Amino acid sequence: MSQYSENLQEVVDNDTLEDIGNKTHLVVYNDDVNTFDWVIECFIEVLGHSPEQSEQLSLLVHFKGKATVLTGSLEILKPKKDALIDRGLSAVIEEFVN
Fold first, then answer.
1. Which of 40, 45, 71, 76, CA to CA, is 20 to 30 A from 56?
2. Which domains can be identified in the chain, with CATH numbers?
3. Contacts of 94 (CB under 8 A, 6+ apart)
4. pLDDT tens across 12-30, in order?
């Protein structure tokens, strides 16, 4: 195996490990209690999303019943999930397995 092939394999292996580590999703479910404005504000303040992205995600939650609002490690997602729940949103962390 050439040096180039070894370096490429290392990059592929690292990318695969990162992909495996990012199978954890923060999912928000629709409800009949919270307003669009409140959900958008929560997404901006808690998740750091832009107003436009927050609005789009709130529409997905509304029309599809739920939406993944953030993907990352459990350590990053858990405090964000807790903050959304503290604000009255219905949020869970789901791990997706292929």
1. 76
2. 22-95 (3.30.1390.10)
3. 24, 25, 27
4. 344 334 444 558 999 999 9
Give CA–CA dist 83/77, Å, rounded.
10
The partner residues of 98 in beta bridges, in order of sequence, read: none
Tell me the CA end-to-end span of the chain in Å, nearest whole number. Answer: 30
HEC secondary structure over the chain: CCHHHHHHHHHHHHHHHHHHHCCEEEEEECCCCCCHHHHHHHHHHHHCCCHHHHHHHHHHHHHHCEEEEEECCHHHHHHHHHHHHHCCCEEEEEECCC
